[in-house]
Every structure is written in structure tokens, then in C-alpha cells.
Write a structure and sequence with these properties.
Number of strands: 7
Largest sheet: 7 strands, parallel
Shape: globular
Strand order of the largest sheet: 3-2-1-4-5-6-7
Helix content: 25-40%
Radius of gyration: 17 Å
Bound molecules: NADPH dihydro-nicotinamide-adenine-dinucleotide phosphate
Structural class: alpha/beta
Number of helices: 6
Length: 259
């Protein structure tokens, strides 16, 4: 993990689960970023208590209000982050916030399909659009021509449940809206990698493993991977990404996940 050198990073859905785990690990790194922006829906509320505790100990942690399904909230978050950064850009945007609905093929609904798609797919699209000027600025300000997370990157938190070639866990949970939203997120990642390469922005989709969070435990089974192990693994993977990895789908251990 010592290899990941970023000046600034923003993590969405940072008040619990994998997002909180990533923030913790980023703050504990020997070369911790100058700015860690932790975005969550209700920064002052009870659900952000752990983030507030961390912020009282780490002056480089800034909590940003963000509802990923609300374009106005996304715009305000980008403006707020821009103010904190002064004239600098943002190196790393981690689109982590996500939801699952435990529906089956038979009882999926228009409402749930739409809500899950808005959160898991449209959210990352709009966030990336809103933060692109700051990502471009970071890319322009970084030496070297190759792509990397130290320079500028968008990382979309996907799931092997959204893999069409190898859809994990069908017998355990059908979660059709979730699978469709993550398959679409994978395509979005590919599109972003094609569109943003010229701006110097690396784009990749990550599967965090089956992780011990509220979401990971929602079927009642115990997930095998701890939040710490997943977050540590993913930050190690991020430190190793280069030009050849833009537009790819990798897991928390760096293995390629089939689309
Ligand atoms: P959790 O349910 O534990 O946490 C989800 C986070 O996303 C919370 O911080 C939540 O905030 C936030 N969030 C949800 N909706 C919104 C919204 N509309 N606006 C802003 N924030 C929102 O999930 P995990 O930590 O387990 O999952 C994180 C990511 O990893 C997700 O994208 C998930 O799909 C993916 N993933 C997880 C796996 C696992 O096994 N856990 C496996 C594969 C992928 P709030 O507290 O306000 O609800």
C-alpha cells in the first residue's frame, strides 16, 4: 500500500461499510493523502458518528454532504471540494455508495429497478461528470504521461454479481435490479475509460470481495472478507494500476473479473 501516493481522494458512501474502511486505511497510510474527502448523506447525523470521530483526530479528513441520486447535491459537493483544494485538482474519485434490494426475478418492480439504477449507475455517471474538471486539473498538474491513480482516476465500486459471464451467487440471491445496475456500471466504466483517456484519467471497475458489511450480510450468511482486508487489498490494487488497466474490471486481490 506504500505505493499509493495520492494528494487528494474522495470516497462516496463513506459513513459505513467499505467506504468507511477505505477512509480509515487512507488515513492510516504512512503517506496519507493531503485531503481525504468522505462523502455521506448526513454528515452531522448519528449515522456519520464514526466519521466525525475520525475527523476530530485527522485534520486532513473533510466530511462532505452528498446524496448521489440528487444532481444538486452532487454539484454542491464538487464545488465544496474545489474550494478546499484551492487551485489543485482531485486525484482519485471512488464511486463506492450503493444499494441492494433483495428482490427476485418474480417480484422486481419499476420503483426498485429505478432506485437501484439511479443510485448504483446514474450516481457514478453524474459524480464523474461533476468532478471531471478537478480530475483533469490533477492530471494536468502531474508529471509523466502514463495513467495512474496517483495522477487522476475514477474507480467504480462494482460487483461480480453484475458479471454477465460469471454471475456470482444466483442460488443465494437473485437481486436482479442490483445485478443489472452493476452490469450497467461496468459498461459505464468502459465508456468512461474510452472518453476520459485523452484527459489523462484512468477508469476502472473494482469488485471488493464478499465483505462483512450491512450489504454483505443482508442475505443472513456471513461474508468471508473483512472490511479491513477488502479496503487494504483494494488500495494495494489501486497503487499498481497503470495505462494498461484503464477500462478493466478487477477484484480486491487484483484478479481480472470476467465482464
Ligand atoms: P453498505 O450498505 O454497508 O453501505 C452503503 C453505503 O452507501 C452507505 O454509506 C450508504 O449511506 C451509502 N449510500 C447508499 N445510497 C446512497 C445515496 N443515495 N447517496 C449517498 N450515499 C448512499 O454497503 P457496502 O459498504 O457493503 O458496499 C459498498 C459498495 O461495494 C457498494 O457499491 C456495493 O454494491 C459494493 N459491493 C459490496 C459487496 C459486499 O459484499 N459488501 C460485494 C460487492 C460489491 P447511508 O448510511 O446514508 O445509507
Amino acid at each position: 500500500m506504500a505505493g499509493l501516493r495520492v494528494c487528494s481522494v474522495l470516497v462516496t458512501g463513506a459513513n459505513r461499510g467499505i467506504g468507511l474502511g477505505l477512509v480509515r486505511q487512507l488515513l492510516e497510510m504512512p503517506n496519507s493523502p493531503k485531503w481525504v474527502f468522505a462523502a455521506c448523506r448526513d454528515p452531522k447525523g448519528q449515522r456519520a458518528q464514526e466519521l466525525q470521530n475520525l475527523a476530530s483526530r485527522h485534520p486532513n479528513l473533510v466530511i462532505i454532504p452528498l446524496e448521489v441520486t440528487d444532481p444538486a447535491s452532487i454539484k454542491a459537493a464538487a464545488a465544496r471540494v474545489g474550494e478546499h483544494l484551492g487551485g489543485s485538482g482531485l486525484n482519485l474519485l471512488i464511486n463506492n455508495a450503493g444499494i441492494v434490494k433483495l428482490n427476485s426475478l418474480d417480484n422486481e418492480t419499476l420503483e426498485d429497478m429505478s432506485q437501484v439504477y439511479s443510485t448504483n449507475t446514474v450516481g457514478p455517471l453524474l459524480l464523474s461528470q461533476a468532478f471531471l474538471p478537478l480530475l483533469k486539473k490533477a492530471a494536468q498538474g502531474s508529471p509523466g504521461s502514463g495513467l495512474s491513480c496517483s495522477k487522476a482516476a475514477i474507480i467504480n465500486m462494482s460487483s461480480c454479481g453484475g458479471s454477465i459471464a460469471s454471475p456470482f451467487g444466483w442460488d443465494l440471491m437473485q437481486v436482479v435490479s442490483y445485478r443489472c445496475s452493476k452490469a450497467a456500471l461496468n459498461m459505464l466504466t468502459k465508456c468512461q475509460s474510452l472518453g476520459y483517456r485523452e484527459h489523462g484519467v484512468l477508469c476502472a471497475a473494482l469488485h471488493p470481495g464478499w465483505v462483512q458489511t450491512d450489504m454483505g450480510s443482508s442475505t443472513g450468511r456471513t461474508a468471508p472478507v473483512t472490511v479491513d482486508a477488502s479496503a487494504r487489498g483494494m488500495l494495494k490494487v489501486l497503487s499498481s494500476l497503470s495505462e494498461k488497466d484503464t477500462g478493466t474490471f478487477l477484484d480486491w486481490e487484483g484478479k481480472v473479473v470476467p465482464w
